């Protein structure tokens, strides 16, 4: 058993060696042993390729403004591991992590001896979250972010009161499938009988899969562009303003403080979710809570301006769709400036297309690497690039220093790629910029 926080987290991270093991059998086994804490949790389940974290944040902020205690289960973390299990945006304490790890550790040893094999890192953290919100510290509602896919994701052990599927992109194709329709099938696995589903899926073939699954399960569906309409969108210096129409109401001049057209879509899903919770589940959410909650919502690493002089932006664009949204925002906000990019990613991503798109906008691009089991090598990324002003440096700290020091007023530095990298890099960058 663990007596220190470091021991507990070290054990949890040691399970990374098991990689991804799709399926719910190990989760079902652990929930049975824990006397089903998942059945005691009122939850919203959020899946999709991009925008899950932002959508969770918008909805959490709205509910929090309305006076509710809101649990969240998200990944990855940005500054400390504890962030993954939070209440009202405040991570659980180190002592709670020790307690939860000690609850799950003996089960892990016992499970290891069965034909199912030991639980993965993500399964352990999911079980910890369910134990926490189900037994240790119950709250009014918990927002569960899917880890990977949906159908066989360990979070799919829950029976939510609402499901959200943000969008579909060609990510994790080795596990989820090569087409939008195949990936949509996996994401649609979180839809439950009779439980409303809200989605921003746009591709016709993918949306059709979602609609068919919802129809089979008699799940009411609200989709962006149909039941949910965004219009009158304009960008501000710090975010976006837009009007949204739903089957229940027209919301004029909604304001968010996260930049990007794609963020209006994430916010629109949260608005629709708040309406469903209000109309059908007796969550008392007034208009003022919704407007105020949206405006206050903040999620690190989403087109985040770290400095205005010099201009330094970070963004966790870790797949092709994320890169496309990131580039759109760079063009929208910095069309008059030269763009210096720093990029790194996990090796199992579709890197060639991502780098090709970044090459097209970068006046200079530097590839780096970081210490993570699945991280790509800087030289390998460099060799995929066709940019005439390309560089690589395995030491990401030196690369950032070398790019910030000579920045002119006519230039910006944009750092993008893996969220795991951004979480490691951001505290260092913040300290450097203070100097």
Features of this protein?
42% helix; 15 helices; Protein-Tyrosine Phosphatase, Chain A; alpha/beta; 2 domains; 435 residues; UDP-N-acetylmuramoyl-L-alanine:D-glutamate ligase; eight-stranded mixed β-sheet
Give me the secondary-structure topology:
Layout: H1 5-14, H2 25-33, E1 43-47, H3 52-65, E2 70-73, E3 85-87, E4 90-91, H4 94-112, H5 121-136, E5 141-145, E6 162-165, H6 173-176, H7 180-187, E7 197-199, H8 204-216, E8 221-223, E9 229-235, E10 240-245, E11 250-256, H9 261-281, H10 287-296, E12 304-308, E13 311-315, H11 320-334, E14 338-344, H12 351-361, E15 364-368, H13 378-384, E16 390-393, H14 396-404, E17 411-417, H15 419-434
Helix pairs in contact: 1-4, 2-4, 3-9, 3-10, 4-5, 7-8, 11-12, 14-15
Short description:
The protein has helices spanning about 5-15, 25-35, 50-65, 95-110, 120-135, 175, 180-185, 205-215, 260-280, 285-295, 320-335, 350-360, 380-385, 395-405, 420-435, and strands at about 45, 70-75, 85, 90, 140-145, 160-165, 195-200, 220-225, 230-235, 240-245, 250-255, 305-310, 310-315, 340-345, 365-370, 390-395, 410-415. By secondary structure, it is of the alpha/beta class.
The percentage helix is 40-55%
- Strand numbers in spatial order across the main sheet: 4-3-2-5-1-6-7-8
Determine and state the CATH class of the largest domain: Alpha Beta
Radius of gyration: 21 Å
Largest sheet: 8 strands, mixed
Shape: globular
Mean pLDDT, as a whole number?
Answer: 92
Q: Please work out how many helical segments DSSP would assign.
A: 15
Count of spatially separate domains: 2
Kindly identify the CATH topology of the largest domain. UDP-N-acetylmuramoyl-L-alanine:D-glutamate ligase
Low-confidence segments: none
Content of β-strand: 15-25%
The assigned CATH architecture of the largest domain is: 3-Layer(aba) Sandwich
Secondary structural class: alpha/beta
Number of strand elements: 17
């Amino acid at each position: 058993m663990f007596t220190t926080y470091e021991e507990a987290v070290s054990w949890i991270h040691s399970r990374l060696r098991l990689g991804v093991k799709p399926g719910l059998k190990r989760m079902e086994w652990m929930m049975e042993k824990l006397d089903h804490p998942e059945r005691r949790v009122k939850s919203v389940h959020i899946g999709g390729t991009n925008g899950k974290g932002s959508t969770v944040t918008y909805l959490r902020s709205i509910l929090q403004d309305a006076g509710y205690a809101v649990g969240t289960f998200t990944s990855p973390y940005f500054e400390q591991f504890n962030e993954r299990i939070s209440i009202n945006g405040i991570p659980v304490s180190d002592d709670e992590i020790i307690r939860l790890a000690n609850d799950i550790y003996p089960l892990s040893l016992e499970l290891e001896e069965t034909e199912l094999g030991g639980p993965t890192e993500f399964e352990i953290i999911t079980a910890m979250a369910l134990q926490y919100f189900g037994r240790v510290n119950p709250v009014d509602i918990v927002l569960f972010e899917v880890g990977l896919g949906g159908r066989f994701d360990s979070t799919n052990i829950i029976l939510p009161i609402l499901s959200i599927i943000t969008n579909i992109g060609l990510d994790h194709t080795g596990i989820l499938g090569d087409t939008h329709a195949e990936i949509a099938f996996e994401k649609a696995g979180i839809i439950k009988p009779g439980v409303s589903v809200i989605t921003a899926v746009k591709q016709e073939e993918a949306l059709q899969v979602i609609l068919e699954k919802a129809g089979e399960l008699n799940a009411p569906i609200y989709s962006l562009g149909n039941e949910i309409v965004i219009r009158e969108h304009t960008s501000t210096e710090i975010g976006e303003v837009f009007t949204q129409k739903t089957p229940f109401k027209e919301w004029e001049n909604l304001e968010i403080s996260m930049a990007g057209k794609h963020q209006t879509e994430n916010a629109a899903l949260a608005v629709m979710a708040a309406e469903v919770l209000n109309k059908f589940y007796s969550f008392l959410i007034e208009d003022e809570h919704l407007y105020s909650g949206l405006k206050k919502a903040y999620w690190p690493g989403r087109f985040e301006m770290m400095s205005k002089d010099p201009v330094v932006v970070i963004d966790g664009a870790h797949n092709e769709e994320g890169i496309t949204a990131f580039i759109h925002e760079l063009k929208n906000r910095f069309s008059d400036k030269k763009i210096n990019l720093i990029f790194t990613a996990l090796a199992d991503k579709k890197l060639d297309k991502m780098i090709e798109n970044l090459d097209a906008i970068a006046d200079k691009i530097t590839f780096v690497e970081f210490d993570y089991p699945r991280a790509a090598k800087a030289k390998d990324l460099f060799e995929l690039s066709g940019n005439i002003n390309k560089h690589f440096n395995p030491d990401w700290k030196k690369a950032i220093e070398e790019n910030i020091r000579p920045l002119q007023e006519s230039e910006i530095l944009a750092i993008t790629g893996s969220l795991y990298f951004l979480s490691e890099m951001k505290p260092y960058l913040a300290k450097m910029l203070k100097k």
